[in-house]
């Protein structure tokens, strides 16, 4: 092919979230019947203000009847914990808002048996600072901070944007840090997990501590979402894990680093992810409604009262996020044709000397020797949209369709995301950063044969916020989060430049339609 080759118990009405269904058969049946998840919330010691945050966690989980929370409060830091023996059995899930002195050995063993036997566990914010010398606990939480944790406790785990994957760093250093509290964007890295598949691909958290340099065994761990720890606010300059799940024996653990204080726990990102994570830890599924990107946005951090957390689920447009999972429907009645089948009206050529003409109801682009890439661009700009077209490209040529693209100056070089068009085998449907210096935006490209040579192929594209999805002949190709590209721009039909003594080659487009999602 040419060209491009992530004891003392305080019982407050319902505070440790018991999410239904995984631990004991009696509880799982209740959860399956839609009963509140029996939740145990543990506090009593913490370097954070647990007296304030525990009621917020409780209210978040009890909102909408999700959980029935019982709060168990340990003796204080200067008191004896030898008789602190909470009963874990009978709860669907245990939620920890505890960071303090070690529990006695019997309690530790009971908790290990509870989780490994199938119990759900949720660790909130500074609870991952706890128990640095408790081996089983560190395996449960995957990663932890402070408490003398260093490289001896395990690697640093970070998302590397340039490699589009997670890496493990065993270099020496203390575990645990955070910069100044600022709002930050959370990016979903595992879209197909029950917790995150009902969340937007990226969303903002209000001002919170963004934990970094967490270390631990990181075994049987899946990082669901990360956030960039900005050096300008004292951060690490890395994409740090924010939401994680860990398998421990038969049990499920949800680890969230969010939730430093009252303002942070008022954040919709904290509330929504905690509710979904708790339900998953309890029973392995999430039945809560998806939360729309119009409610949990990627630009502005949303806040609300914890007691009203369920309203975010109730007010999300019905089916809005579910509709983001399948290909754009060709039967929708609000498609707008961008090509009349007879002329190039509504299109203007930018860059290059390739020719464009209309022939047999198709736009035909023809290469020109010595020409750089040429683009026939829509006169209108588009933000959130669905796009469909049919295309047939000569096997010796690759092409593409620009989306949300721009020029560097009037009449200057076209740049932006490009949906690749290439013969089989090839990268058709993947996203390339045309003239951006980024190369391929979709780093992983397992599907090479969706495009069928020597015939017209149906492409479908959806761009909403920073999420871009593509399909070629009904095969899903790309589903990426791309916060670096513009959110608005023109469309462009590319004819690639060719070397000397090659070509001429042609590419044909027809049935070009767009559907605005704004």
- Helix-strand makeup class: mainly beta
Choose one word for the global shape: elongated
| CA-based gyration radius | 26 Å
Amino-to-carboxy terminus distance: 38 Å
Which range does the strand content fall in?
A: 25-35%
Helix content: 10-25%
Strand order of the largest sheet: 2-1-3-4-13-12-11-8-9
For the secondary structure, the number of strands is 28
Write a brief caption for the model.
This protein is mainly β and 518 residues long. It has 7 helices and 28 strands. The chain is 13% helix and 33% strand.
Can you walk through the features of this model?
- It is a single chain.
- This protein is mainly β.
- Helices cover 13% and strands 33% of the residues.
- A nine-stranded mixed sheet has the order 2-1-3-4-13-12-11-8-9, sandwiched between helices.
- The relative contact order is 0.12.
């Amino acid at each position: 092919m040419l060209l491009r080759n992530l004891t003392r118990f305080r019982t407050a009405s319902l505070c440790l979230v018991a999410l239904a269904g995984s631990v004991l058969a009696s509880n799982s049946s209740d959860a399956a019947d839609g009963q509140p998840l029996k939740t145990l919330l543990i506090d009593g010691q913490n370097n954070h203000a647990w007296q304030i945050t525990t009621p917020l966690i409780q209210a978040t989980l009890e909102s909408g009847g999700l959980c029935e929370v019982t709060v168990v409060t340990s003796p204080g830091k200067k008191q004896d914990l030898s008789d602190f023996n909470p009963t874990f059995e009978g709860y669907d899930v245990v939620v920890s808002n505890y960071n303090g002195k070690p529990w006695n050995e019997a309690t530790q063993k009971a908790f290990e048996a509870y989780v490994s036997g199938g119990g759900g566990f949720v660790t909130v914010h500074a609870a991952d600072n706890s128990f640095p010398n408790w081996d089983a606990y560190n395996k449960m939480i995957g990663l932890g901070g402070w408490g003398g944790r260093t490289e001896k406790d395990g690697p640093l785990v970070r998302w590397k944007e340039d490699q589009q994957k997670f890496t493990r760093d065993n270099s020496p250093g203390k575990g645990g840090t955070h910069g100044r509290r600022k709002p930050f964007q959370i990016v979903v890295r595992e879209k197909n997990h029950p917790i995150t598949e009902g969340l937007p691909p990226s969303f903002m958290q209000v001002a919170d501590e963004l934990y970094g340099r967490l270390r631990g065994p990181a075994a049987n761990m899946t990082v669901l979402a990360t956030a960039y720890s900005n050096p300008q606010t004292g951060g690490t300059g890395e994409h740090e894990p924010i939401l994680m799940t860990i398998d421990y024996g038969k049990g499920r653990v949800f680890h969230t680093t969010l939730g430093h204080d009252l303002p942070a726990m008022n954040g919709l990102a904290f509330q929504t992810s905690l509710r979904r994570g708790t339900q998953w830890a309890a029973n392995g599924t999430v039945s809560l409604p998806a939360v729309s990107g119009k409610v949990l946005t990627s630009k502005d951090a949303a806040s609300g009262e914890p007691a009203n957390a369920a309203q975010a689920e109730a007010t999300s447009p019905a089916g809005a996020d579910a509709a983001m999972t399948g290909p754009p429907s060709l039967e929708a009645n609000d498609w707008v044709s961008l090509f009349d089948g007879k002329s190039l009206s509504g299109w203007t050529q930018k860059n290059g000397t390739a020719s464009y003409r209309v022939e047999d109801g198709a736009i035909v682009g023809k290469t020109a020797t010595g020409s750089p890439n040429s683009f026939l661009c829509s006169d209108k700009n588009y933000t959130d949209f669905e796009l469909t077209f049919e295309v047939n490209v000569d096997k010796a040529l690759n092409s593409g369709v620009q989306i949300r693209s721009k020029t560097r100056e009037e009449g200057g070089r076209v740049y932006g995301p490009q949906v690749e068009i290439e013969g089989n085998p090839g990268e058709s449907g993947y996203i390339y950063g045309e003239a951006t210096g980024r190369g391929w935006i979709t780093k992983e490209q397992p599907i090479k044969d969706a495009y069928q040579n020597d015939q017209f192929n149906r492409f479908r594209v959806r761009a909403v916020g920073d999420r871009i999805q593509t399909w070629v002949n009904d095969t899903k190709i790309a589903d990426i989060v791309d916060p670096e590209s513009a959110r608005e721009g023109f469309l462009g039909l590319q004819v690639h430049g060719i070397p000397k003594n090659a070509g001429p080659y042609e590419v044909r487009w027809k049935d070009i339609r767009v559907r605005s999602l704004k």
